[in-house]
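ok posting inputs for the 1,3-dihydroxyacetonephosphate job
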Amino acid sequence: MRRLLIAGNWKMHMTAGETEHFFKDFLPPFSEEPLKGALAKGHIEVAFFPAFTSLYVASFAMEGAPKGFSLGAQNVHWEAKGAFTGEISPSMVAESGCRYCLVGHSERRHLFGETDEMTQRKIGALHDVSLKPVFCVGETLEEREKGKTFPVVERQLLAGFDGVPSEKLSLETVVAYEPVWAIGTGKTASESDAQEACHYLRAVVARHFGKDAADGIRILYGGSVKPGNTAKLLAMDDIDGVLVGGASLKSDSFLDIVKAAVTTLGA
Ligand code: 13P
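and the output
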């Protein structure tokens, strides 16, 4: 069974002080059932992707928390070091207490010019320091309306994974299917559309990297995930978690999303 990943991408929200407050509210329910048991059994993982400036505070806040919490960064440069003003290297991300790092988020692709080639370099550089990429792919509304969803996400996936050894995919890599038209719009993909795309992505992984990679790799859905639609999405066979933007910024709504995930496990 693939471990469910409930991830909060905080984007450019939450100062270090706000991060500290968030965890003071968010963590206490995890010392009680049913959340305590669900994490202890290892069937679910809760990850946060704060801004770089809040990583240290988040890592400190999570020190006394039960196992099952992880941290990730929102971006990384592919070089190990050098004259790249404003950039952060993979080892800097790792030393900040991170296990994960987002790659290819649609906001980076569309607002900051991140190309397929850059995603490929970043994924390789993250694997080199044993960080796990959370690799985002997704089509725009125009691409969906022209029936191009599958070719677009397949192109993105194969470009980013070019040269990645298949054994790195099953446990070391996560994919997030995030249709651009569903991000921050309140329009969630229906669970059947999300399942169809995630199933397709898993089949692409199987075709190019083998069955073990396809069976092991976790594929998340992201785009207007809320407490009310989490359980339906997670009930789908190929959806192994959710990547949540807006609804992860308030401790009570993100907690409700985690609780909905725990309910789907029957834990
Ligand atoms: P929203 O949940 O705000 O739509 O954002 C989704 C997202 O971009 C997560 O990476």
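notes: The chain has a mean pLDDT of 96. The two ends are 14 Å apart (CA to CA).
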